Amino acid sequence: MAKTTSTALALILALSAPVMAQETGEAPATEEAAPAADAASTNTEYPTGQEVGAPADGPGSSYTAASFEAWEQKCVHTESGVDPCQLYLLLKDKDGGSVAEFTMFNLPKGSQGPAVAGATFVAPLETLLPAGMTLQIDGGKGKVYPFTFCTGIGCVARIGFTAEEVTALKSGGNAVITIVPFVAPEEKVELALSLKGFTAGYDAVAAANDKADAAAAAAGTAAPAAP
Fold first, then answer.
1. Helix residue ranges per DSSP H, the chain
2. Helix (H, G, I), strand (E, B) or coil at 78
3. How far is the C-alpha of 142 from the C-alpha of 129, rounded, in Å?
4. Which of 12, 13, 20, 190 is the most interior residue, by most CB within 10 Å?
């Protein structure tokens, strides 16, 4: 906040400088003021920019910590260095085109049940929202989940998994997510949710989040949110 305030103050002073000089009758600055301009060019209040493509690993930035078959462990840098994570999977159609995203993470210990894990599913904007999304594990009875909201990147469904369902995902061979296109409500789009590498990935994410929760508790702060 202090940096923002000082930046705003510097901007106000810079914009008002010609007016102040006119009101006081002072002559505009000449070549003698050049050194001050040089000093300003190295001031941290005037960043020189960051090269496009350069790595950014400051707090709040995300990164891929590990890969588990089709899944990725994506985490967010925190100031403490104990980073929260989630398990990420890019879903593709039968032609290999990227269609949707699925992320999953364990919930903090002691959370009000029955869910012990949470997930988000991001579907294309052209999805028929009232139909929701259906998740079926290994040919078992599917469950329908409602979409919660939409953004510019797609529509989001939030999912809660019980301990039994997490076990089913770990021991399962594959799962299927079904959505309905808005332009063709009589059709269904099935997206394969590969479970190869899921167990190792989920356990890695859970271990990372447990450490992040413990570090936050020790510091007396709120637990950092998963990316």
1. 2-24, 34-41, 163-171, 198-219
2. coil
3. 17
4. 190
Question: What domains sit in the chain, N to C, each tagged with a CATH number?
Answer: 88-198 (2.60.40.1880)
Q: How much helix, strand and coil, in percent to the nearest 5, is found in the chain?
A: 30, 30, 40
**Locus of tokens 């210990």:** 109
Q: Which two tokens stand for residue 190?
A: 């099935």
CB neighbours (10 Å) of residue 185?
Answer: 11
| Residue 19 buriedness (CB in 10 A; 0-12 / 13-18 / 19+) | exposed
SS3 1: coil
Smallest CA-to-CA distance from 161 within 121, 211, 101 is with 121
CA pair distance 124, 92, nearest whole angstrom: 12
Cα–Cα dist 194/43, whole Å: 51
* pLDDT, tens digit, 9 for 90 and up, residues 167-210: 999 999 889 999 999 999 999 999 999 999 999 999 999 999 99
CA nearest neighbour of 181 among 119, 102, 100: 100
DSSP at 180: -
Distance of alpha carbon 195 from alpha carbon 96, whole angstroms: 17
Q: Angle 82-104-199 (CA atoms, 0-180°, nearest 5)?
A: 90
In angstroms, the first-to-last Cα distance of the chain is 24
Q: Write the pLDDT tens digit of every residue in 45-89.
A: 556 555 565 456 778 889 999 999 999 999 999 888 899 999 999
CA distances from 180 to 8, 115, 148, 177 (A): 49, 26, 16, 10
